[in-house]
Amino acid sequence: MLMKAQTAQLIVVDLQERLLPAIHGGEQVIVCANKLISAAAELMIPVTVTEQYPKGLGGTVPSLTESLRASNATFLPKISFSGMADQQISNAIAGTPERRQLIVCGTETHVCVLQSAMDAQLAGYEVFVVADACSSRTQENKNLALERMRAAGITIVSTEMVLFEWLEQAGTSMFKEISKLIK
C-alpha cells in the first residue's frame, strides 16, 4: 500500500540532545528527519514527537526546532520504550482516527523505534519505518531491528519514498516546494 498524505501521521521518536552524539550516522538521521518534518508541515500531516526521559536525555535536538515549530508538532515525554505503551502518546496518535498510517523515524532503531512500531502494528495501524531517518548506537543493531520489523510485516521505506508518495504527482506548487528538500 502507498503512503498517503491524507491518511498519514509522522511519529518522531527520541531524537534527543544527549542521545544523538552516540548514534551511528546521527547527523544523517537529523537531515532526513528534518525533510520529513518539513514536508509534513507543508502537507498538514500531524507530527508527534516522543522524548525518552527528557530529564536525563535532554529535549529534542535544537536543529529540528524550526521545522517542528512549523509543523505544529505535539511533544510528549515517555519512560516506556514503546511510545504506544504510554497512554498519553497512544491517545494523541488515536486522536486522528482517519490517519491510520504511521510514518516512524528516530532512535534507537532496535529499542524505542522497534517497540513503538511493533505495538502500533498490533494496535491496527499501518506502520512504515523510514530507514535513513533511523539509527542506533551501532549499525548492526539498526540492521537487526530493520530485519525484524520487516519480518513482522512492517514496511521499511526511505525518506524520498515517503516524500514522493505523499506528493503523488509532479507539476503542482506543493511538488515544487517539497522537491526543494530533496536537492
UniProtKB/TrEMBL annotation:
It comes from the Bacteria. InterPro entries: Isochorismatase-like_dom (IPR000868), Isochorismatase-like_sf (IPR036380), Isochorismatase_domain (IPR050993). Gene3D superfamilies: Isochorismatase-like. Residues 10-160 form the Isochorismatase-like domain. This is Nicotinamidase-related amidase.
